[in-house]
Design brief:
With 332 residues, this protein is mostly beta strands. Helix content is 0%, strand content 41%. It is rod-shaped.
Length: 332
């Protein structure tokens, strides 16, 4: 006031963002009041950098000095039901450096992208230039707008669905299955309509995605009646496909009911007058896939095997018989 720098005319002005209150006391002459450093406010508008997908609906944005209250804390629509056109705004003072913290909502993640930067989560300004980044992890990005002197638009792109692992395992209930037999030695696993079987016992699925899986049992196991479940929930089967719905975490699909095939072997002796089957003693027995059945044959009195005699097993293999006794091994 009147170039008076002592402050005795206005020692304690009440200064607020939108109002200053001050008092001139005991006025006895004309006075000039000078106002300085009134700063302009500018709007910071946050928007999605993709016209097809609203990436803004996939994040929470905070000011670094207020991590309790997101600028867009209100709930948004589930993306499976359609996106919204959310626009988030903040107000800053001219010349400020303002830092923001961005976290993904449930089911989403930030991505570093490929080696050449494709698919990277980005924060850009009106000129599509990257803003000054602080930290960058899959769960948090901080960035700073420096010396704000105009309205700005900040665009957020490539906030991706989080990916989860789907692991396949079976319960070993049959003692005929050798120890350390992997699930891919028992069955081929296909995802969706793919004709390429999985090369490992794991697959990938994105947040709230639904996928189908096909389990084709290999030779020696195809008599099994499978039960497929996730935790205590049995997966629905249709057209030999099992459906896993709306996944929100790493998931293990468990398969039970896996057994090795059992076969009935009937032994028929078409030369009873000349040959006696010493073992096995029964004409019908059960054997497990991949096992070996041994027949011990003996000629009766007055007969002997010649080099021309043949024993044909169930696989069509011809076994030459010689001597007065023959042990034949038949693999089933």
């Amino acid at each position: 006031v009147d170039n008076n720098t002592s402050g005795n005319q206005n020692e304690n002005p009440l200064i607020e963002e939108d109002k200053i209150t001050f008092k001139l006391e005991n006025i006895t002459n004309n006075k000039t009041v000078k106002i300085s450093n009134v700063l302009q406010k500018f709007n910071i508008t946050f928007a999605s950098g993709d016209n097809q997908v609203n990436h803004l609906d996939r994040v929470y944005i905070y000011k670094s000095n207020d991590l309790e209250n997101a600028l867009n804390k209100e709930d948004v629509k589930d993306e499976t039901a359609g996106t919204t056109n959310t626009i988030v705004k903040d107000t800053v003072i001219e010349g400020d450096n303002v830092t923001y913290v961005m976290n993904p909502r449930a089911g989403y993640t930030f991505s570093e992208g490929t080696a050449n930067g494709e698919g990277k989560t980005t924060v850009t300004d009106d000129n599509n230039s990257l803003v000054t980044e602080g930290s960058f992890t899959e769960n948090e990005i901080t960035f700073t707008l420096e010396n704000v002197t105009s309205d700005k638009t900040v665009k957020i792109s490539n906030v991706l669905f989080k990916k989860y692992k789907v692991k396949f395992e079976y319960i070993k209930e049959d003692t005929n299955i050798p120890e350390n037999t992997g699930i891919l030695n028992i069955m081929d696993i296909y995802v969706g309509e793919s004709t390429s079987r999985l090369s490992t016992n794991e697959s990938e699925i994105t947040y709230k995605e639904t996928k189908t899986y096909t389990f084709n049992l290999r030779e020696g196991y195809n008599q099994s009646a499978l039960f497929v479940s996730v935790g205590e929930k049995t997966l629905e089967r249709q057209d030999n496909k099992y459906t896993l719905s709306k996944v929100t975490e790493d998931t293990t699909i468990t398969i039970s009911g896996v057994k090795k095939n059992m076969y009935t072997i009937k032994i028929k002796n078409n030369a009873t007058e000349a040959i006696e089957i010493e073992t096995p003693s029964t004409e019908e027995l059960k054997v497990v896939h991949g096992s070996e059945l041994t027949l011990n044959l003996k000629t009766k009195s007055g007969y002997k095997f010649s080099k021309e005699d043949k024993l044909i097993d169930i696989s069509g293999t011809l076994n030459t018989i010689s001597g007065d006794k023959k042990t034949a091994t038949i693999k089933v």
